[in-house]
């Protein structure tokens, strides 16, 4: 909590103990009981009354007060891909050179590449990292990477997770423990405040949502560097845990298989079973063929309800698809 301000003159104000000193003393006496915003306001109000302050005003970082609810960004670090608008600092402009790299990163993710692979691609192409890009523009930054153009996987992952690229402002990602303890802590996403369409978007919302869905099923290369198209998508029917992908240099791809990750951690957690990758591939391919067959055979039944719904026509109860379509 910042010091409060009242209408007394500077000379009168300096004759009294400052609010911060008094509040810190009370905090020590209460041994942390003044941590809450409510208690802090109560303590300062009492102190102001006792010392003759007439119009106390509170400036509180509680996540819900002040200009923060106007939709203006609170962060002082503008995300990579945007730049400061000199005429209106609270409004971000697109930095087209960096924005094109951001779009490329999202495209690569949609194509199936993970953060580490994307970082390696950017490095191999000699694309400047965000720090290098900002320094070239004369912006104060942290130390440059030891190896030029060496992108970090964490940097790529952070870019893929930022909702700001959809044109929205996200405030209150973090806070401090109290007015006295300035240790930064992350807020849960449920407490973030999102203000939509506050600046021009770099990434479409649909693409951003698709990337988040992909990343919720992260696919990491195994020891041989191989990644299956089904990695991160298969789960054990017995215990519900993910299936790990296994293939070694001593065997052909035909012998690659998925096995229970829970059993690998402890044999007491599940039973020993596996399924070949080629079997999964065949099952998925057969299901897709059946779906395509039904789409072609019952095209009118499938599209007529959609056509009527788009024109506000009530859905007919007489149109029924064959029960065999319940795949």
List descriptors.
327 residues; mainly alpha; Hect, E3 ligase catalytic domain fold; 3 domains; 3-stranded antiparallel β-sheet; two-stranded antiparallel sheet; 9 strands; 38% helix; 9% strand; extended; disordered N terminus
Q: Any overview of this molecule?
A:
It is a single chain. This protein is extended. It is mainly α. It is built from eleven helices and nine strands. It folds into three domains: 10-60, no CATH class; 70-214, Hect, E3 ligase catalytic domain fold; 224-327, no CATH class. The strands form four sheets. It has a three-stranded antiparallel β-sheet.
Examine the secondary-structure arrangement and name the CATH architecture of the largest domain: Alpha-Beta Complex
Q: How many distinct folded domains?
A: 3
Could you give the order of strands across the largest sheet?
7-8-9
Percent range of helical residues: 25-40%
Number of strands: 9
Query: Which descriptor suits the 3D outline?
Result: extended
CATH class bucket of the largest domain? Alpha Beta
Q: What is the H/E order?
A: HHHEEHHHHEEEEHEEHEHH
Question: What is the CATH topology of the largest domain?
Answer: Hect, E3 ligase catalytic domain fold
Distance between the termini: 59 Å
Low-confidence stretches: 1-17, 30-34, 60-68
Radius of gyration: 29 Å
User: Could you give me the name of the CATH homologous superfamily of the largest domain?
Assistant: Putative Large Serine Recombinase, Chain B, Domain 2
């Amino acid at each position: 909590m910042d010091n409060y301000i009242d209408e007394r003159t500077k000379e009168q104000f300096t004759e009294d103990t400052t609010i911060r000193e008094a509040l810190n003393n009370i905090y020590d006496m209460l041994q942390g009981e003044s941590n809450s915003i409510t208690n802090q306001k109560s303590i300062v109000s009492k102190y102001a009354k006792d010392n003759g302050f007439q119009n106390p005003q509170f400036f509180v970082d509680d996540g819900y007060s002040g200009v923060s609810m106007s939709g203006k960004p609170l962060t002082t670090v503008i995300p990579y891909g945007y730049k400061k608008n000199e005429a209106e600092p609270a409004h971000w402009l697109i930095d087209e050179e960096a924005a094109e790299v951001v779009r490329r990163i999202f495209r690569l993710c949609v194509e199936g590449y993970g953060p580490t692979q994307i970082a390696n691609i950017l490095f191999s192409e000699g694309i400047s990292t965000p720090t290098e890009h900002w320094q070239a523009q004369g912006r104060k930054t942290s130390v440059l990477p030891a190896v030029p153009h060496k992108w970090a996987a964490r940097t790529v992952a952070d870019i893929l997770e930022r909702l700001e690229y959809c044109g929205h402002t996200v405030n209150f990602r973090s806070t401090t423990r109290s007015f006295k303890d300035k240790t930064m802590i992350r807020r849960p996403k449920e407490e973030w405040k999102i203000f939509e369409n506050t600046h021009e978007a770099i990434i479409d919302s649909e693409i951003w949502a698709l990337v988040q869905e992909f990343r919720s099923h992260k696919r990491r290369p195994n020891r041989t560097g191989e990644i299956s198209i089904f990695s991160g998508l298969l789960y054990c029917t017995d215990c519900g845990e993910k299936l790990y992908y296994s293939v070694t240099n001593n065997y052909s791809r035909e012998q690659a298989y998925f096995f229970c990750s829970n059993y690998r951690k402890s044999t007491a957690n599940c039973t020993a079973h596996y399924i070949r990758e080629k079997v999964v591939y065949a099952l998925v391919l057969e299901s897709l063929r059946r779906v395509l067959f039904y789409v072609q055979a019952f095209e009118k039944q499938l599209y007529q309800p959609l056509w009527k719904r788009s024109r506000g026509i009530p859905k007919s109860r007489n149109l029924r698809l064959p029960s065999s379509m319940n795949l």
